[in-house]
Amino acid sequence: MIKRTKKIKRPLLVLDSADRLKTQWYLVGEDQVVFKKQTNGKDLLKSLDQFIGAYNLKLKDLFSFAVVTGPGSFSGLRSGIATFNALAWALNKPIYGLPAPLTDSAILKLQKKISTAKLTSFKKQVMPFYNQEPNTCPPLQSPIINKGDFINKL
Predict the structure, then answer these.
(1) Where are the beta strands (DSSP E) in the chain?
(2) For the chain, domain boundaries
(3) 12-153 maps to which CATH number?
């Protein structure tokens, strides 16, 4: 892995996990998207460590977090948002939500807003927006049995 030595001022780490098959990472400086990487949707924390490690950064060096809140994959959004909410909470860093689809201009607009904002009030967590019901297993259709019938069957 190539280590980059360029110092990034006020780094914002952005995660787009709205697609269940891929995860997109963005590292943003004060005025530009410095680095982008796409990984598969697996091993979120390992990918995170490798991604910021490429810039000799540690989690504590990050200024703030942003995560795509949806719409998108139920599993992808939940895992990405839960991870970033936990990191922001543990590190006492601000977290911001961005709608999908994510663009460089939307990220830079957020970074500019963060740079000029007072950091006394920021979100402690973001919530997902799925735009549809979760695509999970259908509810079980069990017959209703009264207590007497149930005991007799035993």
Answers:
(1) 12-16, 22-28, 33-40, 64-70, 95-99
(2) 12-153
(3) 3.30.420.40
How far is C-alpha 55 from the chain's CA centre? Answer: 20
pLDDT tens for 100-139 read 888 888 888 887 777 766 554 456 677 777 666 666 666 6
> What are residue 23's phi and psi, to 5 degrees?
-125, 135
Looking at the DSSP bridge assignments, the partners of residue 39 are 23
Taking the CA atoms of residue 87, residue 19, residue 129 and residue 67 in that order, the dihedral angle to the nearest 10 degrees is 30
Classify residue 93 by its DSSP letter: -
Cα separation, 26 vs 61, in Å, equals 15
Q: Which two tokens mark 136?
A: 């999970």
SS3 117: coil
CA distance 150 to 135: 33
Q: What residues are paired with 33 via a beta bridge? A: 28
The 10s digit of each residue's pLDDT in 2-52 is: 445 467 777 889 998 888 788 888 888 877 777 778 777 678 888 888 888
How do beta strands 22-28 and 95-99 pair?
unpaired
Specify the pTM.
0.74
